[in-house]
Amino acid sequence: MPGFREVVRCARCGNIVSGDVATDARCTRCGVDLHACILCVHFDTGQRFECDQPITARVSPKDERNTCPHFEAQRKVERETGSSASGPPSARQAFDDLFK
Known about the structure:
This protein has about 100 residues and is mostly beta strands. The protein has 1 helix and 3 strands; from the N terminus they run E-E-E-H. It has one helix at about 90-95, and strands spanning about 5-10, 15, 75-80.
């Protein structure tokens, strides 16, 4: 049975980011800055200055690096879809398992 995992993904290309997001971190696939508002858990377009934290000025643009002290990378819970340690089942085995 597949489990769940918590991941941080690049806001532009969806690449999985490993470890914590440093201030100068960039996506290894598309090169976008990761320490930016669009990847922050506090980013909310419905709030004043598009942030749910008490900031005094709007940070712009939202997809470029900033040094906001409230930054916290948005983590998403995803279903693990990879194969198990024993390897993927054969097509025949998967078919037979349907009728058990």
